[in-house]
Structures are given as structure tokens and as C-alpha cells.
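Backbone-to-sequence.
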């Protein structure tokens, strides 16, 4: 048997930190970073005798996420204690939700490899608290605990095992990220751990109806490692099975450097969390009006923006799809267009040159270091003829390196386009004199020769000559 005889089955448990101002059970700030143990209080440090109070915003944000992913919202939900010991969890239990999650039975849509719409079902979305963080010293001798993150609110979005490839897993997570960004419940900064996923992978022979045994890669926080991790696990599992072995259900850690997975713990010590309702918290009862009100106030979702881009800006389907896939690119597009009034150009820059650089640098759209004003000004400078398109591309590279106003960049670099006919004519004459063969070729009917001459002139001016004027002057001179 070969790889083609197997089907891949994947389910994701996605954690998103909510962007509420304060933590889930106390009024400490949720802000990322800060000196260790400065964003905490007796409640999130689990001092004896303290009592949690549920932050209403957390419920609101989770309901928003549920509504935006087609979930049923529970009218009657509760918090449970999930008991386990780990040094970053000072209470020795995590407050989570067990049998009555806030949201259930939703779905999101992705496009499969044939471009067909495919639904990935969501089992549930529940709320819980994040744990603290252990900082290990480089010799592995000491670990210090930082509780700034303890009690930061999370939603966990659990998918059904409906995903069938690494590519679908990436699309699914990008969709989740995009939705959470649009409804403004999480900043989804993967590099800060605001969005991370446990990736469950199994394989089975094609045609088999029962799922294979899965392994789970914990806390994956980049699209690239998720794709690499899945590909690695699929190959590993198939090889084990092909050699007559069995897959152990285990928790794995993906290591980006070595490009392989390591076992963290196996089923032997599978945890019994002894869930029970948290006696310190009341049930979460939601009225229909409450849910309706959130539904009616949901921000504009990608689908509606997409339609608007077709009508309002006359973009193509493809452009509208790509631009609205991320709220950040979509906002960049709208803000820049408002200033420079050239939607087509903004769209082109975002989809080609900016996308290319993001890809090369392995950056996400939200890490773009320059502003919409910068992009708009760049386009205006080209539209006005102050710089050529070629110089524009160089300005963009600068914007990524050292963002500031494009007009400043071209001034500092001396990149302003030469549009003075007298100055260009001097260069044209010089190039003609230096290249008699090309001139003769052109006169003998080889039209292409002019391209070479223009190229030489561009080189001479370091790309700064206005191309229209340059072409016009060459034509005039060569006709003589
Ligand atoms: P746990 O919470 O113990 O990890 P769950 O039953 O809640 O277990 O499943 C967690 C995730 O694993 C879900 O996203 C689910 O879709 C996925 N999953 C379950 N069975 C499989 C399987 N055989 N192969 C791949 N993914 C699976
Ligand atoms: Mg799990
Ligand atoms: Zn606190």
C-alpha cells in the first residue's frame, strides 16, 4: 500500500485569547507582556479565600463568536472546575466548561482543493481561563512562574474531525482567525500566543468507516508549523501502519527546528480531570433578548464586505475574496482607498507586491509595519508622476524596512523621477551616441532595439527617468 491509499483525518481545538480589557474573574489587565507578575492580584494568583466574579464581557464575546460561526447559543450554561496540577496553574484547577458549553453545533465554510465550498462543523465553543507561564532558565535548572497570563479569558473552539488535509487545516484556521478579527473579540496574534491550536491527526485506509487512532500536537502557533507538523505526522503514522505497527494515542510536541514531533505524555497517564460545577460561580442564564441584541450588533462580516467590494469599488471576485480574507488587509484597502481614491491601484499593491514581501518574510498581514496613509501616498506619488512604478517598488521595500512617509523616503534616497525634458534629452543623445549599432538596427526595422536603448537610459538614471518622456524623445531623435 502507499500513501495514496490512506485518508487523513484532522480535528482542531483552537484557543483564542479574548481582547477584553480585564481578566475573566478579576479586574487585572489582559495586556500582553509586562514585567513578570505585575498584572495579577490575589484572585488570579489563587490566594485562599478569594472569590471569582465572571466578567460579563467574556460571555458577550463568546456569544459573538458563536453567532458568527453559526452556533446554537445555550440559554443555560455554567462553569466547571477542571482539576489538574501544573506549576503555572496556582489553583490546581482551571475554570472551564464541561457539559454545558456556551455555544454548540456551528460550522464555518472553507474552499476545498477543487474550489468547492465545504463545511467544517464545530462541536462547541466554551469559555475558560488561561494559565500562567513558566520561564525556564537556559540550563534547565530553574523555572520561574509568571502569572500575568493567568486568568486571561479564552474561548476554545472545537471542530469535528471534518478536515482532510494540511491545506484544509490551514484554510480552516485562517477562516476562524478572520472571523474572530472581524467581530473584534480577539487580536489573534499568533506570535504572541493569542491564537493557538491543538492539532489532532489520524489516518485510515480509504473506504474505512471508523476513524484511526489520533495523536495530538499541542499549542501550535504558526500556520507554517501546523502544515509541516501535519505532513510529518501523516507520513510517520502511515509508515508505522505500513510496517505492521499500531498508532499510540499520545500528546506530541512539534519541534520546528528538527522538523519532527516528540512524545509529551501517552495514554497511560491520560488525565481524569474530575470535572465538577464550580461552586463559587452562578449559572450563566441568557435571555433571548440578550442574544438577539448581540446578533443585531455584530460588525460587518467578510461576506458582506466582499459583496460591497464588487459593487462599490468594482473589483473582481478574486480581488474581493483575497482582500476580505483578512480584516487587516481589508481595512488597509479601505483606508488607503479613502485617501488616494484609486481602489484598483490599492488592490494591486496589496495583492501583488505586498503579498509577495509578506510571503518572503513569512509575515502575517497584521505585522505590516507601515500605515494606510503611507500606502496611499505611495500610490499618489506614482499617479502624479513624481516617481515611476519601478521606484515605487523600491519605496515599498523601504516601507517594510524603515517605515516613514514615502515622500520623505524618495527625498532622502534621491529617487524623485526626472521629468524635465531638457535633462532627459541630454541622456537620450548620450545613449544614442554610445550605441551606434542599436541605432542602426532600429533604423533597419528592428523595433526591439529601442527597448535596449531605453533600458540603457534607465540604467544611466538609476530608474528615475520618466518612461513616457524617455520613449517619446527616443522616437523623435531616432526619426531624425
Ligand atoms: P480531548 O478533549 O480529550 O482532546 P475530544 O474528543 O474532545 O478529546 O477531541 C478533540 C479533538 O480531536 C476534536 O477537534 C476532534 O475533532 C478531534 N478528533 C477526535 N477523533 C479524531 C480522530 N480519530 N482523528 C483526528 N481528529 C480527531
Ligand atoms: Mg484535546
Ligand atoms: Zn487578578
Amino acid at each position: 500500500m502507499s500513501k495514496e491509499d490512506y485518508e487523513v483525518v484532522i480535528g482542531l481545538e483552537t484557543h483564542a485569547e479574548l481582547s477584553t480589557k480585564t481578566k475573566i474573574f478579576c479586574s487585572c489587565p489582559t495586556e500582553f507582556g509586562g514585567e513578570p507578575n505585575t498584572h495579577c492580584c490575589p484572585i488570579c494568583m489563587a490566594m485562599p479565600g478569594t472569590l471569582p466574579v465572571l466578567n460579563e464581557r467574556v460571555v458577550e464575546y463568546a456569544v459573538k463568536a458563536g453567532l458568527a460561526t453559526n452556533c446554537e447559543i445555550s440559554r443555560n450554561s455554567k462553569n466547571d472546575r477542571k482539576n489538574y496540577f501544573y506549576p503555572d496553574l496556582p489553583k490546581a484547577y482551571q475554570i472551564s466548561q464541561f457539559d454545558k458549553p456556551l455555544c454548540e453545533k456551528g460550522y464555518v465554510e472553507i474552499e476545498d482543493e477543487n474550489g468547492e465550498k465545504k463545511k467544517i462543523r464545530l462541536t462547541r465553543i466554551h469559555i475558560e481561563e488561561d494559565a500562567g507561564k513558566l520561564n525556564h532558565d537556559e540550563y534547565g535548572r530553574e523555572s520561574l512562574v509568571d502569572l500575568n497570563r493567568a486568568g486571561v479569558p479564552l474561548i476554545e473552539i472545537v471542530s469535528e474531525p471534518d478536515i482532510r488535509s494540511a491545506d484544509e487545516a490551514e484554510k480552516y484556521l485562517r477562516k476562524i482567525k478572520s472571523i474572530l478579527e472581524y467581530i473584534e473579540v480577539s487580536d489573534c496574534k499568533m506570535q504572541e500566543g493569542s491564537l493557538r491550536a491543538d492539532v489532532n491527526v489520524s489516518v485510515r485506509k480509504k473506504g474505512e468507516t471508523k476513524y484511526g487512532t489520533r495523536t495530538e500536537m499541542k499549542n501550535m502557533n504558526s500556520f507554517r508549523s501546523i502544515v509541516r507538523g501535519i505532513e510529518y505526522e501523516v507520513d510517520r503514522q502511515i509508515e508505522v501502519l505500513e510496517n505492521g505497527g499500531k498508532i499510540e494515542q499520545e500528546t506530541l510536541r512539534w519541534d520546528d527546528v528538527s522538523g519532527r514531533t516528540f512524545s509529551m505524555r501517552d495514554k497511560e497517564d491520560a488525565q481524569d480531570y474530575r470535572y465538577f460545577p464550580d461552586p463559587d460561580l452562578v449559572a450563566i442564564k441568557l435571555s433571548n433578548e440578550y442574544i438577539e441584541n448581540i446578533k443585531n450588533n455584530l460588525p460587518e462580516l467578510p461576506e458582506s464586505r466582499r459583496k460591497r467590494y464588487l459593487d462599490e469599488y468594482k473589483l473582481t471576485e478574486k480581488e474581493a475574496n483575497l482582500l476580505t480574507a483578512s480584516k487587516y488587509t481589508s481595512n488597509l484597502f479601505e483606508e488607503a482607498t479613502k485617501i488616494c481614491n484609486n481602489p484598483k491601484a490599492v488592490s494591486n499593491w496589496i495583492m501583488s507586491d505586498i503579498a509577495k514581501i509578506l510571503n518572503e518574510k513569512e509575515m502575517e498581514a497584521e505585522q505590516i509595519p507601515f500605515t494606510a496613509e503611507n500606502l496611499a501616498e505611495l500610490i499618489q506619488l506614482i499617479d502624479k508622476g513624481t516617481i515611476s512604478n519601478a521606484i515605487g517598488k523600491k519605496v515599498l521595500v523601504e516601507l517594510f524596512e524603515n517605515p516613514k512617509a514615502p515622500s520623505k523616503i524618495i527625498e532622502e534616497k534621491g529617487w524623485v523621477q526626472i521629468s524635465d525634458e531638457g535633462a532627459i534629452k541630454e541622456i537620450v543623445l548620450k545613449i544614442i551616441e554610445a550605441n551606434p549599432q542599436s541605432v542602426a538596427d532600429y533604423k533597419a526595422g528592428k523595433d526591439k532595439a529601442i527597448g535596449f536603448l531605453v533600458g540603457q537610459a534607465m540604467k544611466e538614471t538609476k530608474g528615475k527617468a520618466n518612461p513616457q518622456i524617455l520613449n517619446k524623445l527616443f522616437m523623435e531623435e531616432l526619426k531624425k
